[in-house]
Amino acid sequence: MTAATGVSAATERSTTAHVVWASALGTAIEWYDFLIYGTAAALVFNKLFFPSFDPFVGTLAAFSTYAVGFVARPIGGAIIGHYGDRLGRKAMLVVTMIAMGLGTFLIGCLPTYSQIGIWAPIFLVVLRFIQGIGLGGEWSGAVVMVIEHAGNRRGFYGSLVQIGFPIGVAASTGIFALMTKLPEADFLSWGWRVPFLISILLVGIGFIVRLKLAETPHFKEVVERKEVLAQPVWEVLRRDWRSFLLAIGITVSEVGLAYLLTVFTVVYATTKLGLPRQVILDAVVYAAIVEFATLPLAGWLSDIFGRKALYLAGGIFSVALAFPLFWFLDTREPVLITLALVVTMTLTHALLFGPKAAFMPELFRTQVRYSGASLGANVAAALSGGFSPLIATALLAWTGSYWAVSLYIIALSVITIISTLMAPETARDALRS
Hints:
transport, 21 helices, Growth Hormone, Chain: A
């Protein structure tokens, strides 16, 4: 190796490390912004924005506004993905940070139903929609940015971006757990607003970091070859439709599990089981902390054994644990509840979400990679992620028991298993150009 080659390799490693760090930090902030809404929907919004309903119906109404953010995500994915494939990955990651930050901060400033009546839930829905638009282009842009810098270790480096999700879960749930220690009147008056208002500081940090990112070499090559497409979203639907459908299929179980484990379990434990909020919130935080280690481990293993092996394992464990999860929750024992969430999150969500950062973008060629990954991830999120807490809560109200929710988890998992079997193995191939 010549000195010049050594310097070049060191520079490349430095650039990759900076891209991974900046992407993970920004994604953590974005997930924090998006996820605090879910916790607030489970604990607060049914009382402050839908107070005239029965508590259970109020929770359903709150989760309906929660789902609005997921309906907005495919729209945001299409818009931001389009410009990400035309103007570059970096510019769109700055845009998503601004959209999410403003939407989250303004939710913390909203008057409640008792102050402005029906306008309170209307404004809540509008701001949730803005959040969804921002997140629709955030995750896909961050992982595309990383894997287009990552060389042959795409699974591992991509999974480091995924750490943003458990950071967001731990931070959003943890700060709400802290706020719930306030007297009930103070929590409902101003305490619930604090997690939303401090978001503006986090977004400022993420904004500055992302301004310093370098554009990816793969996108630069497309620009130099003058191969930028005029309508990348249309190209995904017209020419890459099979990859698009597979992307949806392999994602529905993972994204559904993410919100069932972090949002619906809070409702189930506090409403159905009558447990203190602190018990289930602490369990969710501990499960998220464990994912700090299991997500990179899953990404690293996917570089060795392939993306499909990890996805099939995650899908099979999701089926196997669908009923035991609720058996442990029903014990009402804090230690067993925490153990159940830690094990379930590790063997299901982590095995699916860790390799996803590489697997999803690898299905698409460079010219449409941002658009394809955005559409695939966000259509799946709209179908199973946003509506999962709503569907699970409705199933619980209908049956009075968890068995229907367990069957729902199994159905999502079977879709992912079938889609994985039909998908190509991408771990050992170069990125499609």
